[in-house]
């Protein structure tokens, strides 16, 4: 079986990382993967052992010329399936190209934002199957009128083995600058023995809720003067967040450390992962934290309740509720035993329910379903 995957994102964030896992798993099962992606993306480099990478120009939702570029690629590679892994133009332009070429099209939906019914009626007509990575996303799609016959649920997964390592505090401090001479952050930590560390792993965009956490922090740093908070990720809200940090007097407590590809070594050193998103498809960082046995506090939004079991692997709070978020963080920071229980339960759940094998087999089942149903118009047309 040959599959052409299309990913329009520029960064190796959650969705692209899931695609990398999928490519690796499919290649191990003998699938011939081709990957169309941006010429300058990290995925193009990381995917080379598992796919034939086809770099091309991709310019977002208005890039109509992506259609002939993808159609030409389909004609050359002759895939059995076209699998679209992102929006940013790939979902629509890739769907049109697949339809014109007569190849069955699968689209993976990773976000839970609602779409008008008229748009969904046009857009998802281009796709033979739509894979939702959470039940919450599937509900959104149903609400937009996507027929049940097209919907399939295949949850995102986490490389549990990669995150199953103890905290290397020396590495953590060296990488995040906490052992530098004269560091204000280091001085704040050394001022007290009880200095908890919180992480947020998400793009710096409004719906991830970083600002809500910042509003909750002043009351927490009064109680824990050495508290350190790290924002892992990049995004258009960086300037606004830096201004908010300064206005709240949190410069010694909050650091924006950018995108990191060593989260498997950094997450085990966190006391908590906090994810105050107001919208979320599932939350790959929540799975990563749980795999590292780190308890999670997150919003009860989108597919997050599928990633975090409230009261079992972490705590859920209403989206945007500063007081509730502050109370949840304070409660867990004060209770090391509860943090340990949540962490152990989270890791056990990742091993049982969010394995890479289950995710790969779920996608492969969708491919086989389409081909067994005789949906490959391309193969029919080619004889």
UniProtKB/TrEMBL annotation:
It holds the Pfam family Glyco_transf_4. The keyword GTP-binding does not apply. Residues 14-161 form the Glycosyltransferase subfamily 4-like N-terminal domain. It comes from the Bacteria. Keywords: Transferase. The keyword Transferase applies. Residues 187-348 form the Glycosyl transferase family domain. GO terms for molecular function: glycosyltransferase activity. InterPro entries: Glyco_trans_1, Glyco_trans_4-like_N. GO terms for biological process: carbohydrate derivative metabolic process. PANTHER family: GLYCOSYLTRANSFERASE (PTHR12526:SF630). This is Glycosyltransferase. It comes from Thiorhodovibrio frisius.
């Amino acid at each position: 079986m040959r599959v052409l995957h299309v990913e329009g994102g520029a960064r190796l964030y959650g969705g692209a990382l899931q695609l990398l896992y999928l490519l690796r798993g499919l290649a191990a099962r003998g699938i011939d993967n081709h990957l169309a992606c941006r010429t300058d993306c990290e995925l193009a480099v990381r995917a080379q052992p598992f796919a034939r990478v086809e770099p091309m120009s991709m310019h977002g939702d208005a890039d109509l010329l992506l259609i002939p570029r993808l159609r030409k690629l389909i004609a050359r590679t002759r895939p059995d399936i076209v699998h679209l892994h992102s929006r940013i133009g790939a979902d629509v332009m890739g769907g049109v190209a697949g339809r014109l070429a007569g190849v069955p099209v699968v689209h993976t939906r990773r976000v839970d934002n609602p779409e008008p019914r008229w748009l969904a009626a046009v857009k998802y007509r281009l796709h033979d199957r739509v894979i939702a990575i959470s039940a919450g996303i599937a509900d959104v799609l149903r609400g937009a009128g996507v027929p049940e016959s097209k919907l399939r649920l295949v949850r995102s997964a986490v490389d549990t083995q990669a995150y199953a390592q103890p905290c290397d505090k020396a590495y953590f401090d060296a990488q995040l600058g906490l052992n530098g001479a004269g560091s204000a952050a280091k001085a704040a930590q050394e001022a007290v023995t009880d200095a908890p560390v919180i992480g947020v792993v998400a793009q710096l965009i409004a719906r991830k809720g970083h600002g809500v956490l910042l509003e909750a922090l002043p009351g927490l740093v009064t109680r824990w003067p050495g508290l350190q908070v790290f924002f892992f990720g990049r995004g258009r809200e960086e300037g606004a967040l830096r201004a908010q940090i300064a206005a709240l007097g949190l410069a010694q407590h909050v650091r924006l450390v950018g995108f990191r590809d060593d989260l498997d070594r950094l997450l085990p050193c966190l006391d908590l992962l906090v994810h105050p998103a107001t919208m979320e498809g599932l939350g790959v960082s929540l799975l990563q934290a749980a795999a590292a046995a780190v308890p999670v506090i997150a919003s009860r939004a989108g597919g997050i309740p599928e990633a975090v079991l409230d009261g079992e692997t972490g705590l859920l709070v209403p989206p945007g509720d500063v007081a509730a978020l502050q109370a949840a963080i304070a409660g867990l920071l004060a209770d090391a035993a509860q943090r340990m229980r949540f962490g152990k339960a989270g890791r056990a759940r990742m091993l049982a329910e969010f394995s890479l094998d289950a995710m790969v087999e779920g996608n492969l089942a969708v491919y086989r379903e389409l081909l067994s149903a005789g949906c490959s118009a391309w193969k029919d047309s080619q004889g």
